[in-house]
Automatic annotation (TrEMBL):
One of its GO terms (cellular component) is nucleus. This is Centromere protein I. Residues 10-27, 41-54 have a biased composition (Polar residues). InterPro entries: CENP-I. Residues 1-58 are annotated as: Disordered.
């Protein structure tokens, strides 16, 4: 095109890189890790290390100068000078990275076709930045793609390099202006997946045009449902849903191939060396005012990029009224500093290409909460899903050394979920894929925290992907891990119930039918979670010999379950299994017994409220509890009253897994007065209180005769127990014992 020809002519006429004059100073400062000080150089003798650095610097400058001046094609095999300079560029790139001034020369050489593909490939693989990559270098190099000077494999490698180094490009405006040029490369089947990825990073709302949508649909009809095409179409549909009428798959996966292979390890190695060698030298990476960069590439995504149009130049750009940049219609997110700015520009924000930076920006998280733009979640999902898959330390070989960094990343994701009060679907998919390979130790607390924000899913998915692998780890791990899992599942249940309350409040009366359908699905999923926790809890208590520490976390879970109907307005009540109820009832710890009493009190309150609502038909759409729920509650109630109050649990307990025993069997135990073994005086969890009560009531009696606690003393003893903080016991006795007495 004429535009590209003009760029080509301007490229040929522009000034060469002055490696021996002005740019030599820049390269020297870059090589030494700071600005040169001539006075200090004269005063201090040159050490051996500085001489070596200067020698390396001179060699690199000579290599850049050589590649800039070479004109005719040169063979690699017969040219020792070329081999030497090429090796110098490669070693410099691997050791420290290349300065910004070198990219213009090396990119032009690699794409101009002056050398064989073997040389061009090595040059492109050596283009590793020490700080940033000038956008002008990329625009200049793109012009070579128009004149077909380089082979298709070099063009493909160049596109992959742009994708991998996208976060290091200092500005993006001119690249956005080349959107149509990159779009034309979709015709090439080999380049299509990577071009889609690059277009995905560059796409803005104004990039979506009907002719581009038609082209993508034609390619999809020709190639089939390719993931890269579907990703770009999904983004187009979220920007302009009225233009994309086809239905796209809701279940996402990794849509783009990994483009970072040749450069990822080198970038990480450079950052590690630079951070260890000198605290002064720090690569600019994506922003000059942010915290120091970390090692892995995902961390560069968490920092806002350098502004695509600097503040000092914004006025000039606006004055030009350039259709190329269209700055006046958007507010660069890099300038977003205050909440008032967010409110003033909330409909004009231009989010960064690297969506990971949204996770660490509170104002952008506010924006996600206020503006329900599905394209934001879509782009964040793509990036986060790929990052989690590539950086997972127990799924990727030789990545254990980065465990601390992966922990930090998972912490950032979890904090963002807490801020938004909703989970990311990409985290859900990551958990489903990685849990079967997880050992339960690596990043334990972070993984369990992510588990608490799993979005509502169908039970079939959770049963196979979550409950199955989690149960295997649960039964074979330590007591502490079991308690941590139970705590996470309790928080997951609470998050689901809170989500239901929010959705219930936002529904209108005209949506009762759809609400009923949604409510039915929610009830089923929540019920299966509660049943799952009940099963693993009963087995865990057997494995751990009914240890009190584990029992506390189990009962803490059921404190939420027993109040679901009244507190969360969800028509569901599920009693704990007998393997949980009876260990708590017979526990030797007063805290566990008190917890159980409070839980039974809240079950009674919820069941009575549900029965009253059924009687008066307060609601048109009313879920009725099954008779089995009431029956199971009554069985547990009889067992508790028989133990704590009437001392006839061994005779009256009617639960199939209960305490009922024949009197002949009880006599063989040779326990005196076995009927009273579990009332509020003799119960192992309360006997300590009874002993202290006897000491206060009869200070001169050293026989500790518990039979003295009866009649009026029984009531005094009850008041004494209540005064010790056993509020659950008090609520249970006052609500259930009197009622049972009246009935009998």
């Amino acid at each position: 095109s004429e535009k590209m020809q003009r760029k080509q002519s301007s490229k040929n006429s522009k000034q060469p890189l002055q490696v021996h004059h002005s740019n030599q100073t820049d390269l020297s400062a870059w090589r030494k890790g700071g600005k040169p000080d001539p006075e200090k150089s004269l005063q201090n003798p040159t050490s051996h290390n500085s001489q070596a650095n200067e020698s390396e610097q001179d060699s690199f400058e000579q290599a850049v100068s050589y590649f800039e001046k070479v004109q005719s094609p040169v063979s690699l095999r017969k040219n020792e000078v070329l081999q030497k300079h090429l090796a110098t560029v490669e070693s410099t790139a691997l050791e420290k990275g290349l300065p910004p001034e070198a990219f213009d020369v090396l990119l032009n050489v690699a794409l101009s076709g002056k050398f064989a593909d073997a040389v061009n490939t090595r040059l492109l693989k050596s283009l590793i930045p020490a700080s940033v990559i000038p956008e002008s270098s990329l625009v200049s190099s793109v012009s070579w793609l128009c004149v077909s000077k380089c082979s298709g494999s070099i063009q493909l490698l160049f596109i992959r390099w742009v994708i991998s180094m996208f976060d290091f490009i200092d500005h993006k405006d001119q690249l956005h202006a080349l959107y149509g040029f990159f779009f034309s490369f979709l015709q090439d089947e080999k380049m299509c997946p990577y071009v889609c990825h690059l277009l995905y990073l560059l796409t803005r709302r104004e990039s979506v045009k009907p002719f581009r949508i038609r082209k993508l649909l034609d390619l999809q009809a020709k190639m089939g449902m390719q993931p890269h095409l579907q990703a770009l179409l999904s983004l187009y549909k979220h920007f302009c849903p009225e233009l994309v009428s086809i239905t796209l798959s809701g279940r996402m996966k990794t849509y783009f191939k990994n483009s970072e292979g040749p450069w990822k390890a080198a970038i990480s190695a450079i950052r590690r060396r630079n951070q260890k060698k000198s605290p002064v030298f720090q690569p600019l990476l994506l922003g000059t005012t942010q915290h120091q960069s970390r090692k892995r590439k995902w961390n560069t995504q968490l920092i806002l990029p350098a502004s695509s149009a600097s503040t000092s130049n914004l006025a000039d750009v606006k004055d030009k009224n350039s259709d190329l940049y269209n700055i006046s219609k958007s507010f660069p997110v890099e300038q977003l500093q205050t909440f008032s700015q967010l409110l003033q520009n909330i409909h004009h924000l231009e989010l960064p290409s690297q969506m990971g930076s949204v996770l660490t920006h509170p104002l952008l998280l506010h924006y996600m909460n206020c503006i329900k733009d599905e394209s934001i979640y879509l782009r964040l999902h793509y990036w986060m899903g790929q990052t989690l898959q590539e950086e997972c330390t127990w799924c990727v070989v030789d990545s254990s050394q980065y465990e601390e960094e992966f922990k930090d990343f998972l912490e950032i994701v979890h904090k963002a979920e807490c801020f938004l009060q909703e989970g990311f679907s990409s985290c859900e998919e990551f958990l489903y894929r990685s849990l079967p390979f997880w050992d339960g130790f690596c990043c334990r607390s972070q993984v369990l925290r992510l588990m608490t924000w799993i979005p509502l899913s169908s039970f079939s998915e959770m049963k196979s992907y979550l409950y199955g692998p989690l149960a295997q780890l649960f039964f074979t791990s330590s007591l502490y891990f079991k308690c941590s899992v139970l705590e996470s599942l309790k928080e997951l249940l609470q998050n689901w119930l809170n989500w239901h309350m929010i959705e219930l409040g936002s529904e209108s009366d005209s949506q009762n039918h759809s609400l009923n359908t949604t409510l039915s699905g929610l009830v089923n999923v929540v019920a299966e979670l509660i049943h799952f926790v009940g099963r693993i809890s009963a087995i865990a208590l057997q494995l751990e010999n009914n240890v009190t520490f584990l029992l506390y976390f189990i009962l803490d879970f059921y404190e939420t379950v027993c109040d679901i109907y009244l507190r969360y307005n969800l028509p569901l009540l599920i009693m704990p299994p007998a393997g949980v109820f009876y260990p708590a009832l017979l526990s030797m710890d007063s805290v566990s017994l008190n917890q159980l009493c409070y839980i039974m009190y809240r079950y009674r309150t919820n069941l009575v409220a549900a029965k009253e609502n059924e009687m008066i038909k307060k609601k048109v759409l009313q879920f009725q509890f099954s008779s089995q729920t009431y029956q199971e509650y009554n069985q547990y109630l009889i067992a508790m009253v028989g133990c704590l109050w009437t001392s006839n649990a061994f005779q009256k307990d009617i639960h199939p897994e209960g305490l009922r025993l024949d009197e002949e069997v009880l006599k063989k135990t040779r326990v005196k007065d076995f009927k009273n073994s579990f009332n509020i005086v003799y119960h192992p969890a309360l006997m300590g209180y009874a002993l202290l009560f006897l000491q206060q009531a009869w200070p001169d009696d050293n026989t500790f005769n518990f039979s003295l606690i009866k009649g009026r003393k029984w009531n005094w003893y009850l008041e004494y127990l209540y005064a010790q903080g056993l509020k659950g016991l008090k609520l249970f006795i006052e609500s259930s014992i009197s009622r049972v007495s009246l009935v009998s």
